[in-house]
Amino acid sequence: MYSKYENIRKIKLYIASSIDGYIASLDGSLDWLSNHPITPELNYGYDKFFESVNTVIMGGKTYRDILNMDVIYPYESKMSYIITRNQINSSKENIHFITDNIIGTISNLKKEQRKDIWLVGGGELISILLNNDLIDEMIITYIPTLLGEGVPLFPKSKKESNWKLINSQSYDNGVLTIEYQRIV
Amino acid sequence: MYSKYENIRKIKLYIASSIDGYIASLDGSLDWLSNHPITPELNYGYDKFFESVNTVIMGGKTYRDILNMDVIYPYESKMSYIITRNQINSSKENIHFITDNIIGTISNLKKEQRKDIWLVGGGELISILLNNDLIDEMIITYIPTLLGEGVPLFPKSKKESNWKLINSQSYDNGVLTIEYQRIV
Fold first, then answer.
1. Dmax of chain A from CA atoms?
2. How far is CA A71 from CA A30, A60, A74, A101, B103, in A?
3. Are the Cβ atoms of A146 and B161 closer than 8 angstroms?
4. pLDDT score for B141
């Protein structure tokens, strides 16, 4: 849905995490998620969320990890912005690469009047945006697993922030979805 | 309540955590919790939980941190077991120090027929007990704050484990309590 009543579209972190805060195995793999797949019957609010955004942003490593998976790029219907130190070749017209002025470019994206923006990951980009108060909502789907080690959802940071709990939803299979809104 | 229907009393981790999984500031301080104190009106299930245990176990650092706080030792009515590398002097008859055979001693505690055992912390002891499948339940009270850095609730480990979501309870002030049970 459009953010009709606000001037600024939101950046929403929407991501799956283990109980202990890992978003991927050490090698970037998401195999541990396969016990709790998103299906038409059990989508943990994914379809509704997917409709609410028309743009995705993600780090270069996350983008390369997706390309290395044996799947069709899942965000073809959205405008993609890949934040990366190294330009990656792509002939896709709706995929843009941002190599410098990250904060300025993303801040400008927020000023456009459109549907919201999905922050796909990974941890490094999440950290950069958190440190610049650029994440408006976090919708975290907690899988009932302790991974022990992996790629952290929230890398260490000097920045503290407070959040408002908007919603939490538990599922019979132990998955728990939690929504937080940044307190401005 | 007594674990009437099972032979083994449970070890329950009951602890407050930031959204990003820290249980204390880097210096061990719990000052960041002061915005969400436990009061008679809002105790996040603390009173009921406190009644369900008659024993607490904690690491030596957690014990010393508590002694350094300007409070009366909060577990005087329980039997305390402090797991520590260095013997600490105490004249209290219901405080015991475990300096070796940690796993054996704690495993034996579980076999006694009594109320449950509260694992108070900290991260290092949590990790040791997780690695030995000695934690039966985790009741985590999530404070709606990103701390950025601190003492981790779940230190890195090689051990993966799966959990059953038993309950989740949200409060108007944004606190969220989540209960997990180990899948055996």
1. 44
2. 13, 17, 8, 31, 45
3. yes
4. 96
CA distances from B155 to A11, B80, B130 (A): 30, 23, 10
B76 to chain A, minimum CA–CA distance in Å?
31
Highest mean pLDDT among A21-35, A102-116, B98-112, B133-147: B133-147
A31 touches chain B (CB under 8 A): no
Residue B100, Cβ neighbours under 10 Å: how many? 8
Q: Which of A18, A19, A133, A140 to mutate to test the interface with B (most CBs of B within 10 A)?
A: A19
Report ipTM (2 d.p.): 0.91
The answer to whether the beta carbons of residues A27 and A149 sit under 8 Å apart is no
**A50 SS3 class:** helix
Residue A88 has pLDDT above 60, yes or no: yes
For residue A119 the two structure tokens come to 């922050």
B176 touches A at CB < 8 Å? yes
State whether A160 and B178 contact (CB < 8 Å): no
Q: Is the omega angle on the peptide bond into residue B122 within 30 degrees of 0, that is, cis? A: yes
Helix axes of B123-131 and B102-111: crossing angle, nearest 10 degrees: 70
Give the span between the Cα atoms of A19 and B168, in whole angstroms. Answer: 13
Alpha helices in chain A (DSSP H): 46-52, 60-68, 102-111, 123-131
In chain A, the residue whose alpha carbon lies closest to the alpha carbon of B180 is: A144
Is residue B160 within 8 angstroms of chain A, CB to CB?
A: yes
Interface residue B87 vs chain A (CB under 8 A): no
Compare CB distances from A165 to B156, B163, B176 and report the shortest one's residue: B176
Ramachandran angles phi, psi of B82, nearest 5°: -105, 120
Quick count: other Cβ atoms within 10 Å of Cβ A36? 18
